[in-house]
Amino acid sequence: MDGVEMNSIPKIVILGAGYSGIMTALRLQKELNYNEADVTLVNKHDYHYFTTQLHMTAAGTDNPENNRVSILKLIDEFKIDFVKSTVVQIRPQDRKVILEDGTLSYDYLVIALGGESETFGIPGLAEYALTIRSINSTRLIREHIEYQFARFKREPHRTDLLTIVVGGAGFTGIEFVGELADRVPELCRQFDVDPSLVKIINIEAAPTVLPGFDPELVEYGMRVLERKGVTFRIGTPIRECTPDGVVVGDGEEIKAATVIWTGGVRGNRLIEEAGIETARGRVKVDEYLRAPGYDNIFVVGDCSLVFNDEGKPYPPTAQIAVQQGVNCAQNLVACIRNQALKPFRYQHKGTLASLGKGEAIGVAFGRKYRGRTAAWMKKANDLRYLFVLGGIMLVLRKGRFI
Ligand code: FAD
Ligand code: NAD
Asked: Is the pTM of this model over 0.90?
């Protein structure tokens, strides 16, 4: 075990200001007295973004400004130093983090760097498919789709320019096709395109969309999306992505100028490169959210792997990331004050998935919800997060009331 020696004020470094990292920072800010610890938050952008809304930014039904907030507006700079930089290496043996433009040393480290797309080694995906991972990646998707519509007016024989393939019908894929289907009429008006030429094809390897989710709600969701113009290809694995589209199943080629990959996530590669034990980039943390073998390294959010009582891993969600952030901050305070650590217990509050404007499906409080009610519940959930993050002012600024 890597014990912690401290002669001076302990240094806490938090890597990543997504759901888990910002929550750790905000709770530390609240709990710690001035000069009790030296806390540094590192993030590659100077804003925190709402990953849970990125399907809208990607489809172009929402503005990126609604989906991000300046980190300096959230933190108290007298208590937390913010460093805008990219982490390039974690060196647990030296208790150092290498940034693109400097080095930080720590006594306690929180790894909250989020996930990356998992391509499972499928040829061509990394090169030719786009992914929904950040504000920047969604700007690219939006611009790319608009560009294909504009190109079509110059090359009207190429209907593949109007075909959008979405690989994977998990929650990200489903939420994205719902938004995209809402955006298509506007795109067609803007570019004078016949809507009947546009195809949105959602391809899923499993025998159903949203594998593992409530079958009745899945059925409802598929009907809503099909009505909006989405075509599903289920039980159809994508085998390859090419510059011209995808190859599926037993070799069928689907031509598409846009391929969006939503087939899965893994933890950040920097963790395995640091020599910390991982499974698909995710760390099987102990009950206090620490990396195996390191008393002073906490891992939270999509980079961590936490199991339920039946030994099944919880899926990586913002919901668990936020709860881990709270627990991690409590445990860091406990470490500094030489108090007992508190085990992390996840409280699953439910799952709600958007199907586009005014439509959603979900299970919460042991009940199923669909349609407008589910959409309102999802909205309420988003507002609640804004409130926890930045109080009523943030709700009013980013709540999309207009
Ligand atoms: P993130 O929120 O991804 O944050 C990681 C942070 O680290 C980012 O700020 C990033 O910029 C920063 N970072 C990454 N690499 C570096 C580096 N090298 N150097 C410096 N900084 C770095 N979950 C739900 O519970 N409910 C939902 O409704 C929901 N909807 C979703 C919709 C979409 C479209 C997607 C893609 C995901 C959705 N999720 C949802 C899942 C959820 O967004 C993630 O589980 C959650 O974001 C994980 O939080 P995190 O703190 O681990 O990482
Ligand atoms: P996922 O792993 O949940 O789903 C990926 C889907 O892609 C699966 O259905 C899988 O069968 C399919 N797939 C994998 N390989 C394929 C292939 N070769 N061809 C075709 N299909 C293939 O990933 P996700 O949807 O990005 O979700 C990631 C995490 O974020 C999950 O934990 C999810 O619960 C969470 N999330 C939650 C919400 C919400 O609560 N509203 C929304 C989005 C994401």
From this structure: yes
**How many Å from the N-terminal Cα to the C-terminal Cα in the chain?**
54
Position in ligand 2 atom list of the atom nearest CA 174: 25
What are the tens digits of pLDDT across the range 50-91? 999 999 999 999 999 999 999 999 999 999 999 999 999 999
Of 162, 160, 148, 119, which Cα lies nearest the Cα of 245? 160
DSSP track, 349-371: -EEEEE-STT-EEEEETTEEEEH
Residues 6+ apart with CB under 8 A from 14: 21, 24, 25, 39, 40, 41, 42, 110, 112
Given 5, 77, 116, 175, which residue is catalytic? 175
Ligand 1 centroid distance, CA of 267 (Å): 10
What tens digit of pLDDT does each residue of 120-157 get?
A: 999 999 999 999 999 999 999 999 999 999 999 999 99
Distance between CA 40 and CA 35 in Å, rounded? 13
Tokens of 104: 């930080």
Could you give the CA distance from residue 180 to residue 157 in angstroms, rounded to a whole number?
23
Q: What is the spatial distance between Cα 307 and Cα 348, in angstroms, rounded to a whole number?
A: 13
DSSP E strand boundaries for 27-72 = 38-43, 47-49, 68-70
Nearest to 116 by CA among 282, 322, 290, 243: 282
Contact 16, 116 (CB under 8 A): no
Ligand 2 pocket mutation, candidates 171, 175, 247, criterion most atoms within 8 A of CB: 171
- Tokens 């973004």, located at residue: 49
Distance 263 CA to ligand 2 centre (A): 5
Distance between CA atoms of residues 305 and 286, nearest Å: 9
Task: Pick the residue whose CA is nearest to atom 35 on ligand 2.
Answer: 317
> Beta 297-299 vs 367-370: how paired, if at all?
unpaired
CA 218 to chain centre: 22
Return d(Cα 277, Cα 296) in angstroms, integer.
Answer: 15
Name the helix (H) or strand (E) containing 154: helix 135-154
- Please give the backbone phi and psi of residue 348, each rounded to the nearest 5 degrees, phi first: -80, 120
Out of 113, 137, 138, mutate this one to test ligand 1's pocket (max ligand atoms within 8 Å of CB): namely 113
